[in-house]
Amino acid sequence: MNKEQMLEHLGTRIVIVTFTKADGSTRDMRCTLRADMLPPQQPLKEGAARRTQPADQIAAYDLDKRGWRSFKVDSVKQFLLA
Fold first, then answer.
1. Residue 4 is inside which H or E element, if any?
2. Strand order across the 14-20 sheet
3. Contacting residues for 61 by C-beta, under 8 A, at least 6 apart
């Protein structure tokens, strides 16, 4: 599955992503990009720049940790639609 397909599924569903972290350990993350499940967006502070995501990563909202997390697309071992 490529990045665009992952983003498409994340935008409409809850997904369980299993990936290898930078330290070599494996992590399962129940996440989404569904607008109705995301926290309210905080306004940017004056003069602050919005972060850009590296092209090989996806940032998604972790429903269990209640925070934004990212993973590298090529580190994904399993991508399950919940």
1. helix 3-10
2. 67-72, 57-62, 26-32, 14-20, 76-81
3. 31, 32, 33, 37, 38, 39, 67, 68, 69
The span from the CA of 80 to the CA of 82, in Å, is 6
Name the nearest CA neighbour of 17 among 62, 78, 82: 78
CA torsion sign for 76, 3, 13, 23 is: positive
What is the pLDDT at residue 13? 97
Other CB atoms within a 10 A radius of the CB of residue 28 amount to 13
Angle at 2 between CA 17 and CA 82, to 5 degrees: 35
**Residue 7 per-residue DSSP state:** H
Whether this prediction's pTM lies above 0.85 is answered by yes
As given in the structure block, the two tokens for residue 30 are 């129940």
Whole-Å CA distances, 27 to 42, 43, 44, 47, 71: 28, 31, 30, 35, 10
